[in-house]
Design a protein that fits this description.
Chain lengths: 280, 280
């Protein structure tokens, strides 16, 4: 594998070499089945909707050789984006960023921007910056740290030879928060897809009753993200919003798909339920 | 990779070359995040408890090259057991057993035992045995079919050069049923671990209240399987049984661990709750 690292910040604005994504999750709790890998499915859903193609999800022990093999394989297979989860925390076995540095032979050092992020969090808690905490700011040289709005360890993004390596924490709330804070807008910028949103407002039908219908639509429309958001009380005065985010190669295509899904769902609701009030 | 297939049934009673397991899941619904990979975590939990070590969980598109690469890699890495899920059904894109045959250069043909299993299911439903249905009995030559007690497609077990390849359906209920019907007892036989069981009966405390405590114990005792089974009504007259299955290299070790966990959990319950009645 060639060592070709771009330290130029501008390069972060060029899209990856292709839309293929490999997800690599570390964590003993995933390999012994104590934790279900919801991080992978959450990321996969988001990425698919944004127009990327997830080609592999790999759970690997957090040991250097094992992790390194999978990372190199992802890059050799020309994954445009490699997303890792786990191993960003302060403990001795949180080594993802060290492993990435060693695998790609890039210096592993304190990133000043990351250090400022970590400092801020601990200052706000009036906690000292110990060696273990400082470790969370150590990254492969040339990385961009990603702000963690709900935890301490920043995420990381690194350009490497046409691909981006993105590292997120294993704690789902932190992983999601980092993704939604900054990363999602970068991914949207990289993607050639256009997105169109519709909201259907439904009164008088419980979310649980509508769930099978939403699941069916999700499976039918793979270029869309369909989700219910309960706004009223489930049993008393149910009021839910169904969010439909459709993607297409052009704005027109995305709008058309969003309309089609909206009509389809409204039609299904009207067929199956009476007494509900629908606004679109 | 050497082609060395044992057609001798007796070989199925020798344990695999080691305790390492690779799980390979196929399915677009896993790669686009519509389905959470609960099959992998369920299998991982069961296998860990039985004394096996899950080294990789890999989700791969159901395309020949991609699947074949991962299967060969698992065998090259000397996985004692490779478990696949998905791709056993009657439709055109259910090709796991064909892919395994092609990857290992083993003839792909109707297995008579499997055919009898499939026939029985359709006869019971007074349904004809179509070409698509017969396909579910096609397997790599030398396979042992695994009975599917809740569906139509049999599972498959194949000995290959020190390793076992085991294929299960993607539908969770069928995957679990096949595992528990015949496979689990074979795995128990292969494993050198001993198992000890304890039950704690708790009255007057809700399962949801005890849940965090059980999660904590599960994370602490990795050689054990700890699960609550609600027997009474959650809110009215709660009565739950906590099942503790502990493993060890000897019966004594397993018994000791089971006792330790039991005492630990009872102690935690007594510290955190008053008013509960505990029997062991």
């Amino acid at each position: 594998m060639k060592e070709k690292v771009m330290y130029n910040m501008e390069r972060f604005f060029s899209p990856p070499q292709n839309e293929n994504v490999w997800i690599i999750n570390t964590g003993t709790e995933l390999l012994n089945g104590i934790t279900v890998n919801t991080n992978a499915s959450w990321l996969a859903r988001k990425l698919s909707f944004l127009g990327f193609k997830v080609k592999r999800i790999i759970v690997v022990p957090d040991e250097f050789e094992e992790f390194s093999n999978e990372l190199k394989r992802a890059l050799e297979n020309k994954a445009g984006i490699v997303i890792t989860t786990g191993g960003l925390g302060p403990t001795y076995d949180d080594n993802t960023l060290l492993f990435i540095s060693k695998s790609l032979k890039i210096p592993y050092e304190v990133n000043e921007d990351a250090l400022n992020m970590v400092k801020k969090v601990y200052e706000a808690m009036s906690e000292p910056l110990t060696k273990e905490r400082e470790k969370m700011a150590k990254m492969p040289k040339g990385s961009i740290p990603l702000k963690n709005p709900v935890g301490t360890a920043p995420g990381m993004m690194l350009y490497y030879s046409g691909s981006y390596i993105i590292s997120l924490p294993g704690v789902p709330s932190e992983m999601k928060a980092i993704f939604e804070e900054d990363l999602e807008s970068v991914l949207k910028m990289w993607s050639k897809k256009k997105v169109s949103e519709n909201i259907i407002k439904v009164r008088g039908i419980m979310e649980s009753a509508i769930a099978p219908l939403i699941e069916k639509a999700s499976k039918k429309y793979l270029n869309a993200y369909i989700k219910t958001h309960p706004k009223g009380k489930e049993s008393n005065e149910p009021y839910i919003e169904i969010q439909i985010l459709a993607t297409g190669n052009t704005e027109e295509e995305a709008n058309k798909l969003a309309s089609e899904i909206t009509s389809d769902i409204i039609n299904e609701i009207e067929t199956k339920f009476s007494g509900g009030k629908i606004e679109r």
